[in-house]
Design brief:
With about 210 residues, this protein is mainly alpha-helical. The protein is built from 10 helices and no strands.
């Protein structure tokens, strides 16, 4: 029986990587708009750059599918995991599967391992695992973005507050989820280092909807 558990776990992790690897921004921009979003704006294969260089319809489409990748990986693939729901083993596997989906987004096998930053896919994972904290982060992100017009600043501040909300407001009991929230906060900050430098130097781009090469 233990071998079945291990085989199901491996299958879930592999499927999570392949689902996470689906390059929504690249495929949407190429198939429906005849451009490669990586050739424009920040050259990033993500929802934010899609908003900037193609527009709202494409941007929201990419955002939806990137979030969906994380949510599906956790909610659907964990049905393959034969641990008792809400047990520490089950929660740990949810986190492993979710993180693997993010790795797939950042290093997609379909696009020579060159993907986006994974923030939207992370949000899908958080929505599936820690819904209350996810909503709190969304509210914080929207407030920062509305008042500053900086998507990166909103993502960074929301990431900083994620473990704070998880530990001190919701008071999640699972130590794995606590460590996950801290890990995600650090990961988002690290992947936004260039944005942080541009924000400090006042060179960061505000959200603009237009098609313009660098």
């Amino acid at each position: 029986m233990q071998n079945i558990f291990e085989l199901n776990n491996v299958i879930a992790v592999l499927l999570a990587y392949f689902i996470g690897s689906i390059p929504s921004a690249i495929w949407v921009s190429k198939w429906f708009f005849g451009v490669d979003v990586r050739d424009y704006g920040s050259n990033n294969a993500g929802a934010t750059n899609t908003f900037r260089v193609i527009g709202r319809v494409a941007g929201f489409t990419v955002l939806f599918f990137d979030i969906l990748k994380g949510w599906v990986s956790v909610k659907i693939l964990t049905s393959l995991i034969l641990y008792e729901p809400q047990s520490s083993e089950f929660i740990n596997m949810q986190l492993v599967v979710g993180i693997t989906a993010v790795i797939g987004h950042v290093f997609p096998i379909y696009e020579k391992f060159q993907g986006g930053k994974g923030v939207a896919t992370l949000m899908g994972i958080i929505l599936a695992i820690n819904f209350s904290a996810a909503i709190g982060c969304v509210v914080i992100f929207l407030l920062i973005f509305i008042f500053s017009s900086y998507v990166s600043l909103g993502a960074i501040v929301a990431a900083i507050f994620f473990p704070i909300i998880t530990i001190f407001i919701i008071r999640v009991e699972s130590i794995s989820v606590v460590y996950f929230s801290i890990f995600i906060s650090i990961l988002v900050i690290l992947t936004h280092k260039p944005n942080i430098y541009r924000l400090l130097n006042k060179d960061e781009n505000k959200m603009k909807i237009k098609l313009k090469k660098n």
